[in-house]
Amino acid sequence: MTLSEIKKQARAEAFARRKTAFATRQATDSAVLREVLARHSGAILSGYMPMRTEIDCLPAMTAHKGPVCVPVIQAPATPLQFREWTPDTKMVTGTFGAEIPETGDWLDPDILIVPLLAFDRQGYRLGYGGGFYDRTLERLRTRKPVIAIGFAFAAQEVAQVPIEATDQPLDLIVTEAETIGPAPRG
Hints:
Shape: globular
Strand order of the largest sheet: 3-2-1-6-9-10-11
Number of domains: 1
Distance between the termini: 22 Å
């Protein structure tokens, strides 16, 4: 089986696990994430507009003491750009159905809340397959220190995410139950 096939199968399984976690979740609060972000008051935060069964980071974004932005896909196979967001921002439907700000300043985040399908304790995530966050993290990390926080239901954890050389690791993973500092891979 090729790595592409392994990732495709892993994504299908991860979607199913996340759907179950979303449907049966007991804790929808992002208190653990808000606690982590409180240590970064003033930093430029990128969150995301939750879609389908993604865990909801909007309460943490709203509570953040500093500028907040959300990702905007400009074109396939390119890094994301980030537009400033507030709870009052007028939103429009962007690429892949994600809500994005209609207007606003473009920002370079210091901290990114990253959606995912699956994660492991070595700090890797299984995304949707477009490579947007991997390209974005690679670009941002050449410019300045950034913190990439995977946000997920605890049920999305797997023993090991299949990775390739272009996959960018997360700095932390936050679930509704805990904060995980990745262990060295190997």
